[in-house]
Design a protein that fits this description.
Blueprint (H helix, E strand, L loop, with lengths): L3 E2 L7 E2 H5 L7 H7 L2 H9 L2 H14 L4 H25 L3 H9 L1 H32 L4 H18 L2 H12 L4 H8 L4 H7 L8 H14 L2 H13 L7 H29 L12 H12 L1 H35 L13 H19 L4 H28 L9 H29 L1
Antiparallel strand pairs: 1-2
Helix pairs in contact: 3-9, 3-13, 3-14, 3-16, 4-12, 4-14, 5-12, 5-13, 5-14, 5-18, 6-7, 6-16, 7-8, 7-16, 7-17, 7-18, 8-17, 9-16, 10-14, 10-16, 12-19, 13-16, 15-16, 16-17, 18-19
């Protein structure tokens, strides 16, 4: 564990970070740094995000495609701040909030985060169960296999092995590029509709807000910061870590865009209002255009990859964040015997999510509630992220014109996130 060197009033710089001032350039070291950005970004394109992108294409064709491009620098800007904090301080996000703003604010942030992680995990479990149902596999078998598999992965592996597993499953999301290609989108129609944005339509604005909420997620901040800390990276690794984050941001938005394009090129052609709330509905709507077997297989692989990598990320995030607040060991570098509470929290979260999904609860209604909760969490997480980045020592401190631009972008993101939450609340009432 890195012990920070006291630096006041700025955020402390970790001793390991101070010791290493020159970046290593060997291929092995580059590979050791890369990972957290790609993993968290692949997790960002989870089952809920895929459904949001599919709804966008089905209901509005290509009119929300430009938004997917605009969100790339916004996503990078937010996650780059958490990378700075982790590399420079060697401490997790919840730990820094507790140190600089007190235990009460830490509990406000982390307590709500735990609910958001559980809500996200429910979406992933539901997505995996939905893929199983497409092939006649009962929900309890799918969710049970996920619980057992993820428990074995965590109990028997290190962070590096878990990261590699997450990247492996996350790579399945690339099949959405094949899906978009097989859908044969009309490039002339796409170009004509790219800048056609009916901003006066409340339904269109709702999906604008929903897409933003599907891309900027609170648990991403906690996960990536804890991951760079667990890999024992320092300020010398900042440049490579930024590239890791930038490539991940580009990749996740390409996946979102491909899902939107596939839906727009198939369902969106009819011009009818279509609501896609489950994996089965997406599959049934897309497969007639792609071929029943190939379409179902491709979408099934994409959803499995998206859901599994996101399930890994949110479960680890919940367990780590609680450990940061309560002070017990919260790292995969410790064995279950050394960190019993960390592994107990991890396992209990998985089991609870599986039980809720298997209980037959209305997951569409639950999804609206989760969206509201995530939207209300954004102001807390992004505000703390900004304030902590402003306290970093020079030259890592967020300052100048970039600080002003970041504040403006965070402000707009928060406003639209809250808008999505309010609209979701009224829609579900």
């Amino acid at each position: 564990m890195n012990h920070p060197v006291p630096v006041e009033p700025s955020v402390a710089v970790s001793a390991a970070a101070v010791a290493r001032t020159k970046p290593a350039t060997s291929l092995m070291h580059l590979l050791a740094i890369v990972g957290p950005g790609l993993v968290v970004m692949l997790a960002d394109t989870d089952a809920g995000s895929v459904i949001t992108a599919a709804q966008s294409g089905a209901q509005w064709g290509y009119k929300l495609l430009l938004l997917q491009i605009v969100l790339i620098p916004i996503l990078f800007m937010v996650q780059e701040l958490t990378v700075r904090l982790g590399l420079v301080t060697g401490r997790g996000h919840g730990d820094l909030i507790k140190t600089h703003f007190g235990i009460r604010w830490a509990w406000v942030s982390v307590g709500t985060l735990l609910l958001a992680c559980l809500g996200a995990l429910l979406s992933e479990m539901a997505g995996l169960a939905g893929v199983g149902l497409m092939y006649g596999i009962p929900e309890w078998v799918s969710t049970g296999a996920v619980v057992v598999g993820m428990a074995v992965m965590a109990y028997t592996g290190s962070y590096l092995s878990v990261e590699r597993i997450a990247l492996f499953f996350g790579a399945f999301e690339l099949v959405f590029l094949v899906v978009a290609w097989k859908a044969q989108p009309d490039l002339h129609v796409m170009r004509a509709n790219l800048l056609n944005m009916p901003l006066g339509d409340a339904k269109y604005l709702y999906l604008v807000a929903a897409n933003i909420g599907a891309v900027v997620m609170p648990w991403m901040v906690f996960f990536q910061q804890s991951s760079v800390v667990e890999k024992k990276l320092g300020p010398a690794d900042l440049k490579i870590a930024r590239w890791d984050t930038a490539i991940g941001a580009l990749l996740t938005q390409v996946v979102m865009a491909m899902v939107l394009i596939a839906a727009a090129a198939t369902i969106g052609k009819s011009g009818a209002e279509v609501s896609l709330d489950t994996v089965q509905q997406i599959s049934q709507a897309i497969t007639p255009f792609l071929g029943e077997n190939s379409g179902r297989l491709l979408f099934g692989m994409g959803i499995v990859g998206a859901s599994l990598v996101a399930a890994i990320v949110v479960t680890l995030t919940a367990s780590r964040a609680l450990g940061e607040i309560l002070g017990y060991k919260h790292s995969l570098e410790h064995s279950p015997k050394e960190a019993p509470w960390f592994y107990a929290t991890y396992t209990a979260t998985l089991i609870l999510a599986a039980v809720i999904v298997d209980s037959g609860v209305n997951l569409v209604t639950l999804g609206v509630a989760v969206q509201v909760m995530n939207a209300m969490l954004l102001p807390i997480v992004l505000t703390f992220l900004y304030l902590l980045a402003r306290r970093l020592p020079s030259p890592y401190q967020l300052k100048g014109w970039y600080a002003v631009a970041t504040a403006a972008i965070i402000g707009v993101t928060v406003i639209l996130g809250v808008y999505a939450g309010v609209m979701g609340l009224f829609d579900g009432s």
